[in-house]
Design brief:
- The protein folds into 2 domains: 60 residues, Orthogonal Bundle (Helix Hairpins); 109 residues.
- The chain has 8 helices and no strands.
- With 198 residues, the chain is mainly α.
- It is globular.
- The termini are far apart.
- The longest helix is centred in the C-terminal third of the chain and has 38 residues.
């Protein structure tokens, strides 16, 4: 097996986003046994090294494909539509979402000031919960959109859709994925504030 193969083909899987997890697990275990360094203990150095490399690559592939979010991220990378840098990511996030990020960060700063000023926990926690509600709703909407786009991608792969159609799906996936990252970071900021109470 060529280490240069992408993770999907390395595991003998189609480049799809909704994978049979039992099948993935079974393939991973079978290849783990095949490449495990213990089986190459007495082999020549080159074979031992190859076994370690294959085993390491297999673990990377399994980690990337095991979870839906990392699977999407990996697919975007190998299909060439992932942003090249953080600056590229910021350019692709809708201005309305960036405005919400800015507003929420201002709210978090005000909550920190309230806490530092000795305000009662109920006061600042209520503000945080109020700020979290629309972000939670937005996250749920994005998760639903990612699932829908994943299903569309798989149908395009199965149906041999033209490259242009597949590219449009990937670009939509990328946009939702980038927005999801912003939303996740916003919620993490709120959780940090809620988790640092006295």
């Amino acid at each position: 097996m060529a280490r240069s193969a992408d993770f999907f083909s390395f595991l003998g899987l189609p480049r799809k986003l909704n994978l049979d997890m039992a099948d993935l697990e079974q393939r991973y275990r079978a290849l783990s046994r095949q490449f495990h360094p213990d089986y190459f203990y007495n082999a020549p150095a080159a074979e031992r090294r190859a076994s370690l490399e294959q085993s390491s690559y297999l673990n990377d592939a399994y980690r990337a494909l095991k979870h839906p979010v990392s699977r999407i991220e990996y697919l975007l990378q190998i299909e060439g539509v992932a942003p090249k840098s953080a600056a590229d990511s910021a350019k692709q996030v809708p201005p309305a979402l960036l405005e919400e990020v800015f507003a929420l960060n201002e709210e978090l700063d005000e909550v920190r000031e309230l806490r530092a000023g000795g305000a009662p926990a109920e006061e600042w926690k209520t503000r945080l919960e109020r700020a979290r509600t629309p972000i939670d709703a937005k996250r749920a909407k994005h998760e639903s959109q990612l699932q829908e786009l994943s299903a569309r991608w798989d149908a395009a792969v199965d149906g041999g859709a033209p490259a242009e159609e597949r590219r449009r799906i990937l670009e939509s996936l990328r946009d939702r994925f980038l927005e999801r990252n912003y939303i996740t970071n916003l919620l993490s900021g709120i959780e940090r504030e809620l988790g640092t109470d006295t």
